């Protein structure tokens, strides 16, 4: 069997040992994962340079030291592009390890966006009814609401970070009370335990981006 290589590009720092084991498990041992991160070349003393400006689109991701950091999109884009260009020389396809959208990023290999997979999957499943979103940051509530509303789906949103102690169960419970019929954990940082908590508390189906994306990639490679 020919060994294949797939890139994993995080918006934070690699390796993402909190995420890639889930992806590797689904892809199997015949696929090598090669990791890179938009912040790989930024040391701790310069992390402040990627702090979001006021009203800027904000992301959150993990650093090698285990801490999480907020990232401004305008600072992130050129760093991501640089790392992607290097990474593509080593792999046959790349998974973007973020549910955000990055339309200005240029790629020469297939670049797999979890947000597109999530959007099309939800639209295929939820032909009517309300979508419940759990997002990491209060600062992301408006932009993610607007993004999902562009699909024409009725939705409700709660905030609970995957990177610190937060009330995932409480968020899921609130979404159920607001009429949600399907929940999306809208960040690659959410894990299988978060999904289990959300499912148990809400009794609703829950989509986990990291495993959903991995299953699509498994079909492709």
Descriptive key words:
221 residues, 2 domains, 4-stranded parallel sheet, Rossmann fold, globular, alpha/beta
Overview of the molecule:
The chain has 2 domains: 4-113 and 212-220, Rossmann fold, CATH 3.40.50; 116-208, Rossmann fold (3-Layer(aba) Sandwich). A 4-stranded parallel beta sheet has the order 2-1-5-6. A 4-stranded parallel beta sheet has the order 8-7-9-10, with helices on both faces. Strands 3-4 form a two-stranded antiparallel ribbon. It contains 7 helices and 10 strands. It is of the alpha/beta class and 221 residues long.
Summarize, please:
This protein has helices spanning 20-27, 73-88, 114-125, 141-149, 168-177, 192-202, 209-220, and strands at residues 4-10, 31-37, 58-62, 68-72, 93-97, 111-112, 130-135, 154-159, 180-185, 206-207. With 221 residues, it is an alpha/beta fold.
């Amino acid at each position: 069997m020919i060994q294949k290589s797939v890139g994993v590009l995080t918006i934070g720092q690699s390796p993402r040992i909190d995420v890639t084991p889930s992806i590797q498990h689904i892809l199997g041992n015949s696929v090598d994962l090669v990791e890179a991160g938009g912040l790989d070349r930024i040391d701790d003393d310069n992390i402040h340079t990627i702090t979001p400006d006021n009203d800027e689109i904000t992301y959150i991701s993990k650093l090698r030291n285990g801490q999480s950091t907020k990232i401004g999109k305008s600072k992130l884009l050129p760093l991501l592009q640089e790392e992607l260009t290097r990474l593509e020389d080593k792999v046959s396809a790349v998974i973007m390890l973020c549910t955000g959208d990055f339309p200005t990023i240029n790629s020469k290999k297939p670049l797999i966006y979890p947000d597109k997979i999530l959007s099309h999957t939800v639209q295929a499943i939820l032909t009517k009814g309300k979508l419940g979103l759990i997002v990491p940051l209060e600062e992301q509530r408006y932009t993610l609401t607007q993004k999902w509303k562009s699909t024409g789906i009725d939705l409700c949103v709660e905030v609970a970070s995957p990177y610190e102690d937060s009330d995932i169960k409480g968020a899921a419970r609130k979404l159920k009370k607001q009429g949600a019929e399907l929940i999306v954990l809208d960040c690659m940082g959410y894990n299988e335990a978060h999904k289990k908590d959300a499912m148990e508390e809400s009794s609703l189906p829950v989509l986990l981006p990291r495993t959903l994306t991995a299953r699509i990639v498994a079909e492709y490679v």
